[in-house]
Specification:
By secondary structure, the chain is mainly β. The chain has one helix at 22-26; strands at residues 4-7, 10-14, 42-44, 52-58, 67-74, 77-87, 92-99, 103-110, 113-123, 129-131, 154-155. The protein is built from one helix and eleven strands.
């Protein structure tokens, strides 16, 4: 049986072990890994459902870690949704198949959790990366509604996404 996990930002499908799995990247070192990413059977199929782009994030300071997380704002906090391999002695991380027109934030493992680094950003439909630069002098109140609630956040194999 194949299960799909549908979230506003991406779709993951279970599959057989891949060589670039999170476990093969961290090589038995003790880094924080979200429970759902511990499986070596995840396949990112986001590109089958929406326009995507590859994204390279340059760290402000080199990171002494093999992985970083891409996060989305979900249920009131930034949550990791997938990982990317860190390259060039901690200088950058690459994420493949990022859904466009989504707000993202980079995080790195820290102890038994993770910490956000840099600024939130959006990859727009033209592949421009727009970083959040809030004007702290001008404040507005906004209301954001949840779009992926409970059972609606999963897509079963027999369902169609419209």
């Amino acid at each position: 049986m194949i299960q799909f996990s549908f979230r506003r930002n991406g779709v993951k499908r279970l599959r057989y072990i891949q060589s670039d799995s999170i476990k093969s990247i961290i090589k038995n070192r003790n880094y924080f890994i979200p429970a759902f990413l511990k499986s070596d059977r995840l396949l990112d199929v986001t590109a089958e459902y929406t326009a995507t782009s590859n994204f390279v994030y340059q760290f402000e300071k080199p990171q002494a870690i093999p992985i970083a997380y891409i996060c989305v704002y979900n249920y009131g906090e930034w949550k990791p949704i997938f990982y990317g391999k860190v390259y060039s002695k901690g200088k950058y991380v690459k994420f493949n198949g990022m859904a466009k027109d989504m707000a993202y934030h980079i995080a790195v493992p820290k102890g038994s959790s993770y910490k956000l680094v840099g600024k939130p950003f959006i990859i727009d439909s033209l592949n421009h990366v727009i970083y959040s630069e809030p004007d702290l002098q001008k404040k507005i109140k906004i209301v954001v509604e949840k779009t992926n609630i409970g059972t609606d956040s999963w897509v079963k194999k027999t369902e169609h996404i419209h």
